[in-house]
Amino acid sequence: MSPHRVFAILSVRAAQCKSLDGLRHSRWRYFFMQFSIGGVTGLLLRCCSPLLRSRHVGGKIISMTQSYWKNKVVAVTGGSSGLGRVIAETFCRAGAKLALVALEKADVEKVAEELGNGTLPIHADITKQEDVDRSFETIQKHFSQLDVLVNNAGRTMRGTALNTTPEQFQALFDLNVLGTIRCTRAAAPMLLQRRGHIVNIGSLAAKSAVRYVGAYPVSKFAVAAYSQQLRLELGPEGLHVLLVCPGPIRREDERLYPLEGLENIPESARQPGAGVKVKRIDPNFLAQKILTYCERRKPELVMPGKARILFALSQLFPALGDRMIKKST
C-alpha cells in the first residue's frame, strides 16, 4: 500500500473519530488521537519517501538519482579543481559520463584519469571562442550527445569599486560572463535536442552586492540575469536552466585572495566570501543538491536558504538591506 493511500485512510479515520467524539468522547481525547494519527502518518511518509524516489529494475531497488543520470553526458567547465571537480565527481557517482573542460592541461588529464568511466579531458581557455568551439565539437564527436552543461569556470577578486579599473572589469567579465555565454551558445543545440540542463554557478553576490570584491558582483549579477533570460526564452522548448547561488565554499586549505590594486581594505575582506558571516558550505552537499534540483527542474538554488530573506528585504527596503549587509560582513 502506498504512503499516500495510508495517509488517505488515516485522514478518513480521523474524521470518523471527530464525529464519534462529538457523541461519546471528550474533546481532549480527540485532540490526542489527531496528534497520534498525524505523527504516525508523518513517520510512515518519512520511512517510505526513499521508496517514492526509487524504482525496481531487475528485482533491485535503484535510486531515482542513479537511474536518471545513467549514461547521460555532462560537461563541466573548470572541472579540474575546487567545486567543479566535486560536481564532476558527484555526477560520475550517479552514473553520468563526463567531459571536463579546464585551462591547465596536466590537471584536467590527471582528474579525468582519477575519475575513470571514460571521462573526456579537454584543455581549453573559455575566454577564446576558438577553444570553446573546439571543445564542444570534441564532445559532439566523442559522445554524440550532451545532457548537462555546468558553467562553473570563473574567479573572484578583491578591491574597491572605484579603484577597480575598466580593464579589470573587462577581464573578469570576459571570464565569468562571456565565458558562460560562449559555452552556452556552443552547447545549446545539443542540449535542446536532449531537453537537457544548464547549470550556471553564480554566488550570493549574484543577488546582493558586498563590499571590497571589485568587479565580482557585477559579473555575477549578469550571470543571474542571463540565466533568467534563458529560462524565459528556452524553457518552453524543454531546456532547464538552474542558477546556483552559494555562499563561501568550505575548503581543506584556507585561501587569502590577493588584492587587485594597492588599496587599503580590511584584512577580513581577503577571506572567502569577503568575510561574510555565514557557515562555510560543504561542497559535496551542494553538488548533491545541484543534481536533485536538476532532476526536479527547479530554477534556483540558494545556499544558505536564509539568504533569501536578505535578498527580499533589500529589494523592498534598500536602506535596511544595506545595513544588514554591512553588519554581516
What is the gist of this entry?
The protein has 329 residues and is α/β, with parallel strands linked by helices. It has helices at 3-23, 27-52, 64-69, 82-93, 105-115, 129-143, 166-194, 216-234, 283-295, 307-316, 318-328, and strands spanning 54-57, 60-63, 73-77, 97-102, 120-123, 148-151, 197-201, 240-246, 300-303. It folds into 2 domains: 3-52; 64-328, Rossmann fold, CATH 3.40.50.720.
Considering the chains and any ligands shown, give keywords for the structure:
single chain; 329 residues; alpha/beta; Rossmann fold; 7-stranded parallel beta sheet; two-stranded antiparallel ribbon; 11 helices
How many discrete domains? 2
Helix percent reads: 40-55%
Q: For this structure, what is the CATH class of the largest domain?
A: Alpha Beta
Tell me about the biggest sheet?
7 strands, parallel
Termini Cα gap:
52 Å
Task: Say how many strands there are.
Answer: 9
Q: Shape from CA axes? A: globular
Our count of helices gives 11
Radius of gyration using CA atoms only:
24 Å
**Unreliable sequence segments:** 17-63
Order of helices and strands: HHEEHEHEHEHEHEHEHEHH
**Which secondary-structure class do the elements indicate?**
alpha/beta
**What do the pLDDT scores average to?**
82
Strand order in the largest sheet: 5-4-3-6-7-8-9
The appropriate CATH architecture of the largest domain is 3-Layer(aba) Sandwich
The CATH homologous superfamily of the largest domain is termed NAD(P)-binding Rossmann-like Domain
CATH topology of the largest domain: Rossmann fold
Layout of helices and strands, plus pairs?
Layout lengths: L2 H21 L3 H26 L1 E4 L2 E4 H6 L3 E5 L4 H12 L3 E6 L2 H11 L4 E4 L5 H15 L4 E4 L14 H29 L2 E5 L14 H19 L5 E7 L36 H13 L4 E4 L3 H10 L1 H11 L1
Parallel strand pairs: 3-4, 3-6, 4-5, 6-7, 7-8, 8-9
Antiparallel strand pairs: 1-2
Helix pairs in contact: 1-2, 4-9, 6-7, 7-8, 10-11
